[in-house]
Amino acid sequence: MSLSASGRHTFRNELWRALPSGVLDSMASTFGMLLAVRVFGLGQLEKSIFLGATSGGLLASLFAVPLLLRLRGRLSGIAAGVQIAGAGCMAIAAMLPTHPWVFIIGLSLGLFCFSMQIPLMTQIYRLNYPAERRGRLYAMAGALRALSAVGFGLFGGWLLGRGLSHYPWLLWSFAAAGLISGLWTRDLPTTPWQADPSDDASLLSSLRWIQLDRDFRTLLISWMIMGIGNLVASSLFVEYLANPSHGINLPEPEVAMLTGVLPVLARSVSSYPWGLIYDRMGLFAVRSVLNLIFALSILIFFLGQSRTAWALGMLLWGLATAGGNVTWGLWVTKLAPQHAVAQYMSVHTFLTGLRGVIAPPLAFAALQVMSFQTLSMICAAGIASASAFITVRARSSELDSREFKHPRERL
Asked: Global pTM?
């Protein structure tokens, strides 16, 4: 199936936007925490603020989408404006690089803005990409984004290896990446918001889909169970390897390689295959397999006591993340009516944000009463149970047809 003009335009822009997005990914996954630990020596409160910033933006997205119903603006223009605002917050951190609270608040607000506009991007993909190729197109941009993160991870590790005093260059890189991402987003082809005339425009109107759509409700519950375990574990990857109080205390380049390069490299290699799987296989089955890979990666990383185990755990994590990114970013397009994709996604991102806010402080609190190893086994068990939950619900190929009837017809 050939792409429409809007589809080709969107895909081209998304490939270019993948480059700065990869830089921001490396900040969120590795360098933000690494600088917080090694440069500023920040405590649990400050680190929890940073780790919860993306989740805070996801929480806010639930309210942002109904507001757009009133603004009637172009989706791409609004999404770009939010991204550029995030770049401005990161630029303030770069301008005042010696102030710990400016650093943590600036980067955190930047991540907040970028996560808040995710439902808008999902709506754009639903409008501009054909259902039969949506997973592959999304995955190809995701693979390039991962390669960009790998490249910047290597550069950042090399730069910090020469001396921690070079870290302001990383801060300016993050701000520039946010600005460039916003400019590419602004050029995406979209029309003004076209809402269903019967839609409720109240701030919590998106929540009604939980009641109306049983499949949506089931997957949200499963994602919540899996996500808590996943986010608790991932909050501690850098902490486990970099904090001297835990006994490992690897050098900065090794931490960057293990947590910022290896998993992203695996993600880049496996993104397109996962896109094919998403387009051709059942959503419930794909999600169940991904959960089991995540659980295995956590056990290997925290139970292993060598660089080989840490590397294998991170490679498996990257493999699962590649498929997880595709399913997380697109699965609502398999459920929602065209006009309601952003609303469905805002509920999904809100709940993702809720568990993301809870997970980092929960992770650090849990370390006060148990070891990394015990906590990893609890996380893995929770993730595996999420697979069992949706396996019971999986019923027929109806859920995985390319386009679906209105949810009221599927109840």
From this structure: 0.77
